[in-house]
Amino acid sequence: MQHILWDYKILSILALSLLTIYLIAGHLKRRWRYDSRRQKILIISLGAFFVLIFGFIFYGSFIEPQWIQTKTIPINLNNTEKNESLKIVHLTDLHAGPYKGPGYYKRVAKKILAINPDLIVITGDSVLGSAKNIEYLTPLKEATAIYPTYAISGNHEYNLSIPEDFFAGRFTDKTETIKQLFASINISYIDNQTKLIQTKQGQLYLSGIREIWYEPDTVDSELTRMGGSINHDLPHLLLAHNPEVIMKPSAAKFDLILSGHTHGGQIRLPLIGSLASMPTKLGRYYDMGFFQLEKNQLYISKGLGESGPRARLFCRPELTVLEVNL
Predict the structure, then answer these.
(1) Measuring CA to CA, which residue among 102, 198, 192 is closest to residue 151?
(2) Contacts of 108 (CB under 8 A, 6+ apart)
(3) In the chain, N or C: fewer CB atoms in 10 Å?
């Protein structure tokens, strides 16, 4: 229902802008020879303003959200003496549903095939709205049938809008439906699990933490358990939907943390950044990109889907390619 309201607002603004432009054009046609120079400048300026409004909203709602950016990030973990280059495709915030359908994810799969990665990871919020919408991700099987793929949950897998929703009982667990679809297309769900991954470039551990707004009191103990029962000579990566996980002391046990959740704000302006506040306790600084922390590294992807309005502006959907030197 929420996405319908957002679409209604967007279409209403577009219709109002077009109507205003039409009326201004009609006025100029009828009154051009009679209006003073000042009136002409005022009317033309007003018309130009509404043309810009229409252009930005149309572009941000229907063009940029479909314009996928493939972003390559080199990361050096310095865990081995060799100079490996492990290629990991990081997908997050896919939000399969009313805004993004099978055709979009077919394009994502084709991009992954062209990249030819060693590994694919998905860091939560795979669905928007009904759990049945997860079926829209089926075209990803073109890639996931070839490359080992691991996924975790995000807050949308539980319909959690804010951290307090869990304690108030305002949540719906969609993970069983999602796990079934993922299993059918060769995606392993690793909430609160650690896997030893063998690649052509060498071995590494990959852990996934369940959405931290769901049973939040267990997060630090789960991180401690997963971070302690491994061979510490090997690199250890953590998939965590919400980058706020770095506030947990035990998060420092992992060499690299991959997150999403923020969408980069979705609506950004040059020099200003995100117009929206970040949905984490970390603040606006941790909105997107690579961060060198005191003891490890963090990458926050802008994600491939949208929630709230269907819009993106100066914040293209992101398919991340991590070139990791183990």
Answers:
(1) 192
(2) 68, 91, 139, 140, 143, 304, 319
(3) N
Residue type at 279 in one-letter notation: P
Q: Which domain holds residue 52?
A: 2-63
pLDDT reported for residue 1: 56
Separation CA 87–CA 235 (nearest Å): 14
CA distance 165 to 39: 54
The token pair that represents 145 in the structure block: 């049938």
The yes-or-no verdict on residue 205 having pLDDT over 90 is yes
28 shares its domain with 86: no
The three-class DSSP label of residue 285 is coil
> What is the per-residue pLDDT for 35?
67
- What is the CA 80 to chain-centroid distance, rounded? 31
Q: Are both 59 and 75 inside the same structural domain?
A: no
Residue linked to tokens 């829209």:
136
Q: What is the pTM of this model?
A: 0.92
Confidence of residue 47 (pLDDT cuts 50, 70, 90): confident
Same domain, 203 and 222: yes
Give one DSSP letter per residue of 213-271, joined into a string: TSSGGGHHHHHHHHHHSS-TTS-EEEEESSGGGGGSGGGGGSSEEEE-SSGGGSBEETT
| Residue 4 clears pLDDT 90, i.e. is over it | no
Q: How many domains does the chain have?
A: 2
pLDDT tens-digit readout, 271-311: 999 999 999 999 999 999 999 999 999 999 999 999 999 99
Residues 166 and 43 in one domain: no
